[in-house]
Design goal:
The protein has 249 residues and is of the alpha/beta class. The protein is built from nine helices and nine strands.
């Protein structure tokens, strides 16, 4: 795919987001008014009218594209497939359920174009908030974040965010594809490319109000598997092994 230097590509993975997707596309257009952008909705065989809603929108807005897939293949693989089909020099991943505020898209893009390889919409920096999460989910999220920050020596405060802007080459050069079935692409990017310049922008993360959450025991298992595979990959590369040995000494 030939890259356009001024184009921003928004990749939105979907699975049964019929209640949200039309509103989200309208909100993205409002947020990026005056910007050269495209939206790629990568759908994992939704059965609730998501595909039909995107197709209807695309007939009226040629910068909206639907990428149809045959089953539930994973959020990370959806983003990577969307990025491979995208033409923008900046690629943004975001959820369809309004957990991520589309009005912050210009700020994320600005950081990537001016100073960063990766700009994270962060839930865990000063000024950020999480709304609508029960205590058990807050505790679980923080435990997962502390685990990966410690194991992989990450400076980012929210390496598990799903609202992120990337320079295109960051995804093009990703050396592994371990997270494809899961939902933690940012972790894989940061763990395998430690020299990246990273910015974090505080966001208000709002728990979905329509549709059903995709997070369940299977996704948690995939997260732990991803951590294990990344640890072994880094050990073979040398970085993980040195860090692990230092902690043992």
């Amino acid at each position: 795919m030939e890259t356009s230097p001024n184009l921003v590509s928004i990749v939105v993975p979907t699975l049964n987001e019929g209640d949200n997707i039309a509103r989200l596309l309208a909100a993205v257009r409002t947020a990026l008014d005056g910007t050269d952008f495209e939206v790629l909705v990568v759908d994992d065989a939704s059965l609730d009218g998501t595909r039909e809603a995107v197709s209807l929108d695309a007939r009226q807005n040629p910068n909206v594209r639907l990428v149809q897939r045959s089953g539930k293949l994973g959020l990370s693989s959806a983003v990577l497939e969307g990025a491979a089909r995208a033409a923008g020099s900046v690629v943004v991943m975001m959820d369809a359920d309004f957990s991520h505020d589309p009005m912050l898209l210009p700020l994320l893009v600005k950081h990537v174009r001016s100073e960063s390889d990766v700009a994270i919409g962060s839930r865990h920096v000063r000024g950020a908030r999480i709304e609508g999460w029960p205590v058990y989910r807050r505790v679980g999220s923080m435990a997962m974040i502390q685990l990966v920050r410690s194991v992989f020596h990450l400076r980012a405060h929210d390496p598990l965010s799903g609202f992120v802007a990337f320079r295109r080459e960051v995804l093009d050069n990703l050396p592994t594809r371990f997270s494809a079935r899961g939902f933690k692409l940012l972790l894989e990017v940061l763990a395998t490319q430690p020299s990246l310049r990273v910015s974090e922008i505080p966001i208000t993360f709002v728990n979905r109000t329509r549709g059903e959450s995709k997070l369940g025991p299977g996704e948690v298992g995939e997260f732990l598997t991803l951590c294990w595979r990344l640890f072994h990959w880094r050990w073979r590369q040398g970085a993980g092994g040195r860090g692990f040995r230092r902690r043992l000494e």
